[in-house]
Structures are given as C-alpha cells and as structure tokens.
Amino acid sequence: MPFALALPDWLVRENYITLATWVLVLATFLLVIATVIMYCDSRSKGKEQRERWKQEDDARAKDQKRRWAREDELRAEDAKPKVAVEIGKREDGPEIVFKCFNLGNTIFFVHQIIITATSPKTSVRTSDLVGPPVLLPGTVMSTTYDCEGLLTDSLQEAKAVFVLRGQHGLEHTDPVWFYVSRDPTGGYDWTVGRLADRLPGAIVPQPRLIPKGS
After folding, report:
1. Distance, first Cα to last Cα, the chain
2. Which of 48, 129, 173, 199 could serve as a FRET partner for 80 with CA atoms 20 to 30 Å apart?
C-alpha cells in the first residue's frame, strides 16, 4: 500500500488501470502467438531434419545394397571358369590337338568337347579327354581329335566348344573354328579359322606346331 500511495494520482485512476490491464492482456496474447510460431517453426524444422536424416539413411542403405550387389557380381564373375583354348598340330599326325588353359582362380571340371560341323550340320560329342579332367588354376589339359568323320567332298567348316562344369553349373567356352579338306594321299589336312578367312589377300592364321612326343 505505501507503494501504491507513492504513485501519481493519474496512474491509479480506474481508466488507466483498465488500459494497463488490456495492454498486459495484449502483450500476453502476442507472447502466446510468438511462442506458438516458434513452436511451429521448431517443429517444422525438426520434421525437415528428420526427413533429411531419413533420406540420408535411405541413400546410405541403397548405396550399401549396391555395394553388396556389386561384390556379389564380382564374386560370381570370379567364380566362373576363365579359359583360353588353343588348337595345335603335331609333327607326326594330322589330328587336331586341343589345349584348354585355366587362367582363372577357380577349379572346374572339363565336362566334354562339342565339335559342330556347319555343312551338313552335325555334332560329335567326345569325352575321351587326355590328362586330368579337373583343372586347377594355372594348369592345362589337352586332347586330340581325329577329323576323319568331318570329311566331305569339299571344304568342311567346324567349331569346337569346351563344356566346363564349375561352381555355378555348366559354362561354354567361345568357339574355336577350323576347316578340314582331303589331301592327295587320301588323308586330310585342316587349317585354323573360318572359310571366310580364305579371301584373297587375307592372312590365314597357322596352328602351333607341336613337336613329336609332346
């Protein structure tokens, strides 16, 4: 009460008290509005941040899945047999010598060789493979093939495909082409490549000559 008595008379008049009350109410109302705005803004920013975190988590998860898928592809690719097939001719015989080199990091089984002639189209399957049928990395196996059954009255084109059995089932090598012809002695001779290689001026590849006893 002493404090109230010290105030000027106009501040304690009823109309000024009413005005002060309304000013206080207005200030409180504005404070409430400001608080609501700050709350809504904070909530909105929090939602945006959570969405940003979720997008980042989703992106990291997708990236991880892509890395796993890529690693699976690389492992599957690495598990496939990687080979090089070479054909050669021995000095002491006309037969074709097929050599299959294991250039990869996996072990595989040489299932069979398929010889397919183009005219008439026939196939001869052979499994009498010389050497170990299971190829370790860095090893080679070889087998011979007598072309007598491919002879016709004209040049005969044929291809050879190795069928390999690895961790993921059967795999076929790229074909190796050759063509066979009769020779004047009644036997036969063969050449690496396709008949299209016989175009004038074309360089015809020669088979590797294998010494006797090799």
Report:
1. 126
2. 129
* CB-CB contact of 210 with 92 (8 Å): no
Look at residue 3 in the predicted model and tell me its pLDDT. 46
Provide the H-helix boundaries in the chain: 2-6, 14-79
Find all residues with CB under 8 Å of 80, minimum gap 6, and list them.
104, 106, 166, 168, 171
137 φψ region: left (φ > 0), alpha (ψ -120 to 50), beta (else): beta
Alpha-carbon distance of 62 to 56, in angstroms, equals 10
Task: Determine the structural domain holding residue 96 and report its residue range.
Answer: 83-210
pTM of the shown model:
0.64
Measured distance CA(208)–CA(20) in Å, rounded = 111
**pLDDT tens per residue, range 28-65:** 888 888 887 888 877 777 778 888 888 888 888 888 88
Phi first, then psi: what are they for 149, rounded to 5°? -75, -5
| Same-domain pairing of 70 and 128 | no
Residues 206 and 132 in one domain: yes
Looking at the structure of the chain, the number of domains it has is: 2
SS3 of the chain: helix, strand, coil, percent, to 5: 40, 35, 30
